[in-house]
Structure formats: structure tokens, C-alpha cells
Amino acid sequence: MALRALYDLAAPAKLNLFLHVIGRRADGYHLLQSIFVLIDWVDVLHFELRDDARLTRHDLAAALPDDDLCLRAAKAFQARTGVRHGVDISIDKQIPWGAGLGGGSSNAASVLLALNRLWGVGWPLSRLLDLGLELGADVPFFLAGTNAFVQGVGERLTPVTIPGHWLAVIKPSASLATRAVFASPLLVRDSGAVIVESFPGRASSGTQVPPGQGLGESGIAGLLGGFGRNDLQRAAQAQCVEVARAAELLQARFGNSRMTGSGSAVFARAGTDAQPVAALPAPLAPGWVGRMCRSLEHHPLLGWARD
Q1: Number of domains in the chain
Q2: Is 93 an active-site residue?
């Protein structure tokens, strides 16, 4: 029997444990180094096959723009594959946008993985990764499905194993546009390249990341407590004072804090045991949202496409 629907597919957010801008390509794209970790703050998507070619989206929670990255991903995949079917996509949007949490890119990746299966296309992961990169720099990470050391513009992924971890995440009321943050004259664009040499915990230059090796507690503590930084944070704080306030709040509660992506969300390492070491500060300012999140070992749809 042909597949007619896929329900309750999770699209998780991510955090950047650090983010260095190490240069810029001739086409203007910035070259980055980062460690991305998946967390259990998720959007939930549902897909129902249409026998016509229409692509529609239904918002079950927060309303999205008319032509969001979900629909752009569906349109691009339909155009590349020549599939004559359509799809109704319903999305329960919980990950805030303008936060640096990668929610839009995660949704796009889940759309590609779902339609590859629902429409019976069967593309290998490598083809999906190429299309994903055209849609957005973070999309390949969510397609690949593992926590990763990320380089280039987002296309060079080296899987890393990160132990289960509690992370406190706060999103201020303000949202930031990635393009505006990258355009700031305060942005550092020439951080020296760093190569994580031996997990857990140390970083130096000169060797490559051992594929699949683990980043232990001392490694995570080092990344958040002293190693590296987020090169976008200064520029983001200049555009939005709430980023600095949220970082100060988490620093006071957990002893560490860092912005993720281009902001405005910030996070703190909050424990590795069954319970976090402390709760989020309360009450948060009006319009702010926050969660105690767990890191994920891998994406819920890992393995849906393979080479």
C-alpha cells in the first residue's frame, strides 16, 4: 500500500557551543567553525499526500510567513524530482524564530526527509545535502542528523558524540535578522582557525577532528567556560541590549552563558545528571521565553536517507 501520510515528525533546535568566523569567501559567504548540538526544543510536523501537485501549509500554533522555508524546501524538492504529487504540511511551531536556534532550517530538513519518503523518491543523503545547502547553511546539519563539528559555510560536517546534558535556554522578546548581524562593523571576521585535537576538552591547531569521537564533560565545560566564543555576540548585543541582559541572567544563575547562532537566544550549561543544577530564573521579562533543554544524541529522523 502506498504511503499516504506521516505524522508527528520532530524538527529539533540546535545550539552553537562556540561559533568562530574565520574568513569570508569571494562570494561574500562567511567561513565558520562551530560545534552544533541538537536539543529537545522541537517543532512537530505532519504530512498528508495530495493527489494533485499543490503544496499547502497549515499553522497549528504560531503563524508563519506565507513563503517560509518549509514551503520553499517542498517547492525546490518537487521541482528537482518532477514529482506530480503534492502535500499538506501541518506544523506545530514551538521553536522561536530570530533566535539562532535553527528552527527554520530544521523544519526544511524534516520536509526534505519526509517528502523523500512520502513521495517515494528515495534520494540518497548526499543529494539531499546538496539541495539543503542551497536552501540554507544550517540545513545540511539537520539532514545529516548527528551533533557535529561544522566548518565552511555549514557544509563540512564531522560527527561528534556529546553526552546527555542539561542546557538552560532563554529567548528574549526581540528577534534578530541573521543578515543584519553579519553585516555589522563590529563583527570579527578573522578569528584564527582552531582544530579540536583530542576529545574531551582540549583544542589546538594542526590536526583534524577524529570522526565520531566523544566530547566529554570536561570538553563541554571547556567550550562554555573558557574555550572560544561566539564571534557574532558583540554585534548582536549592540543591536539588541536584551541579548546582553539574558546572558548576564544565565551567567549569574549557572556561572556560564553564551549566545547561540546570530541570536537572540542565549544558553548555559546546566548539568549532566538526571536533573539540572538549578531552574531557570523566574519570572522572565515580559515576552521572553525559556526552557530547560536536554541535548539529543541524534536527530529523531536519523537514517531516513542514506548513501
Answers
A1: 1
A2: no
Given CA atoms 98, 101, 103, 108 in this order, what sign does their dihedral have?
Answer: positive
Tell me, yes or no, if 75 is annotated catalytic: no
Residue 114 exposure: Cα atoms within 13 Å on the Cβ side: 30
**Residue 190: predicted pLDDT:** 65
Tell me the residue type at 154.
G
- What's the full length of the chain, in residues? 307
- What pLDDT was estimated at residue 62? 87
Contact 186, 234 (CB under 8 A): yes
* Joined grid coordinates for residue 111: 520536509
DSSP, residue by residue, 4-53: -EEEEEEEEEEEEEEEEEEEE-TTSPEEEEEEEEEEEEEEEEEEEEESSS
Dmax over CA atoms of the chain, in Å, equals 57
| Domain hosting residue 74, numbered range | 5-159
Q: Which of 14, 43, 93, 231 is labelled catalytic? A: 14
CATH of the domain at 127: 3.30.230.10
* Residue 59 counted as domain residue: yes
Q: Which of 39, 268, 41, 262 is nearest to 154 (CA)?
A: 262
Q: Is residue 211 part of a domain?
A: no
Burial class (CB in 10 A: 0-12, 13-18, 19+), 96: buried
Is there a domain that residue 34 lies in? yes
Residue 149 has pLDDT above 80, yes or no: yes
pLDDT digits (tens, 9 = 90+) for 267-286: 999 998 778 889 999 999 99
Confidence band of 203 (pLDDT split at 50, 70, 90): very low
| From 43, 68, 138, 231, active-site residue | 138
